[in-house]
Amino acid sequence: MHKIGFKNITVEYFETDAKMDFNTATKKLREWKTDPAFIKKHLNDVRRHGLEYPMEHVIFCRK
């Protein structure tokens, strides 16, 4: 951002409450065309914990 002329750059992070159970998570992973090998490798983790969207962020700056 600095290289293209922005100044006073700050980033605010916030958690999302979007969590999915196992069935919804596997359905979404297939909809997102996730590599089946990735799904197979992490299936136990998804079964145990479900899936949640990562932390979101907003960037504030001036040009």
Average pLDDT figure: 91
> Structural class of the helices, strands and pairings?
alpha+beta
* Number of contiguous helices: 2
Main sheet specs: 2 strands, antiparallel
What is the 3D form?
A: elongated
Task: Give the structure's gist in a few sentences.
With 63 residues, the chain is of the alpha+beta class. The chain is built from two helices and four strands, in the order E-E-H-H-E-E. The chain has one domain (2-62).
Topology of this protein?
Layout: E1 7-14, E2 19-20, H1 22-31, H2 36-49, E3 51-52, E4 56-62
Antiparallel strand pairs: 1-4, 2-3
Helix pairs in contact: 1-2
Main traits of this protein?
63 residues, alpha+beta, two-stranded antiparallel sheet, 2 helices
Notes on the structure:
With 63 residues, the protein is of the alpha+beta class. The protein has one domain (2-62). 38% of the residues lie in helices and 30% in strands. The protein contains two helices and four strands; from the N terminus they run ββααββ. The strands form two sheets. Strands 1-4 form a two-stranded antiparallel ribbon. Helix 1 packs antiparallel against helix 2. The relative contact order is 0.36.
